[in-house]
Design goal:
alpha/beta; Alpha-Beta Plaits; Rossmann fold; 7-stranded parallel sheet; 10 helices; iron; flavin adenine dinucleotide binding
Length: about 400
């Protein structure tokens, strides 16, 4: 039986364990000499109190047998392929296929794509997944998968994991992926690392190394899941490059079925096209990205003119959104969207690490900033030191000629 164990004879009732606990999982009760720590229902077995105890009166007993997993039984890298209401594959899925192929080759195993779609879904996209690197495509065509319902998809994935035992599953960090992946992780009692920027295989242990920004983006943390399977991670769009299709590749397309008891608890009655949703800037091939360095909100029309002249979308940094100059959907970076345009013109952006994490996929960056030491210049291919407004006005004049 696992749980927190307190040695009442060794405990001195000092209360350091209480101060170390962030979940109200332990209290100190009684009067001396019988004052002693007690476990509450809030305990999550984090071990903070164990480290804080000066007399080693607290320990954690874990039932290893109950949670033991036969790691050798798990094999293959899986990519969850998200589709839209028209059964089209999301761009991030192809990006994950490219990275998944690298990981599978390093691990010496197969790459499997898992895709759900409506009964009318086209087989053409399934063949493209093979061309993108899949050795096998598990395709489930079912009316219940017409909408992206996390509960239905979690049912499908968990049943397949129990049957086929993949060692790792990659998800796109879309709105749906961020809803689905945690639900699967809880049901399977395994780990999940969100918003990864680097994925690699440890040659010695065979573990998936999942790297993501931590502590506000001030450092990069590499996370592993050594004792549970499957290892799971979400990755934002634009982090990895989509692979070139190899139309000579061969692979297997396997039709699978969804269990009869998998049902959605929420019914969507309004089609997505009626919601008035706008295209995400994550899909833009050209972007003009502005920061606080443009001076004020009154300079935004000038920046929009430049975007229109370049056939680009307008993006921004977090401070611009917080100042109320633009809406959140324009925000790029760790707390916004990740982008991978062919051209990105950065104007008045200093280049904090949180922002740079979102533009790593850009093919060409032109940076304009009056600070010659701005971090953005370390990423840009073309660098212009000068007043943002003056440079943009001159650039517009050149373009309009």
């Amino acid at each position: 039986m696992s749980g927190l164990i307190i040695d009442s004879e060794a405990c001195i009732g000092c209360g350091r364990c209480v101060r170390a606990c962030a979940s109200d999982g332990i209290v100190v009760k009684g009067e001396r000499p019988n004052r002693c720590a007690r476990v509450t229902d809030g305990c999550i077995l984090c071990g903070g109190c164990v480290d804080a105890c000066p007399v080693n009166a607290i320990s954690i007993e874990r039932d290893e047998a109950a949670g033991a997993v036969d790691l050798d039984a798990y094999r293959d890298i899986w990519v969850f392929v998200q589709t839209d209401e028209h059964d089209a594959v999301a761009p991030v899925a192809y990006e994950l296929m490219g990275k998944g192929r690298e990981l599978a080759d390093a691990r010496g195993c197969r790459l499997v794509a898992l895709v759900g779609m409506s009964p009318e879904g086209s087989l053409g996209d399934l063949e493209h997944l093979v061309c993108a690197g899949a050795d096998e495509v598990l395709a489930c065509r079912d009316e219940r998968l017409r909408q992206n319902d996390a509960e239905v998809y979690a049912h499908l994935i968990c049943d397949l994991v129990a049957e086929r035992k993949p060692e790792a599953i990659l998800y796109g960090a879309t709105a749906f992926g961020r809803e689905l992946a945690p639900g699967v992780a809880v049901r399977l009692q395994t780990g999940l690392t969100a918003d990864c920027t680097v994925l690699s295989m440890d040659a010695e242990t065979g573990l998936l190394q999942q790297t993501r920004p931590a502590f506000g983006g001030n450092l990069m943390a590499t996370i592993i899941c050594p004792n549970h399977r499957p290892q799971m991670a979400t990755v934002r769009s634009g982090i990895f490059k989509a692979p070139d299709f190899d139309y000579g590749r061969s692979g297997t397309i396997t039709q699978i079925s969804l269990a009869d008891d998998a049902k959605a608890r929420v019914e969507i009655s309004i089609p997505a096209e009626e919601w008035g949703q706008q295209a995400s800037i994550a899909d833009a091939e050209r972007l003009v990205v502005v920061g606080r360095g443009i001076g004020s909100k009154k300079n935004l029309p000038l920046m929009r003119r430049l975007a229109e002249a370049l056939g680009a979308e307008l993006g921004c940094t977090r401070p611009v959104v917080e100042a109320g100059w633009l809406e959140y959907r324009h925000q790029i970076g760790q707390t916004g969207v990740s982008v991978s345009p062919k051209l990105l013109v950065s104007i008045g952006v200093s280049g904090a690490i949180q922002h740079l994490a979102g533009i790593g996929g850009a093919e060409c960056i032109i940076a304009i900033n009056e600070d010659p030491d701005a971090p953005i210049f370390g990423t840009a291919q073309y660098k212009v030191v000068g007043d943002a407004v003056e440079v943009v006005e001159e650039l517009l004049a050149q373009l309009e000629r």
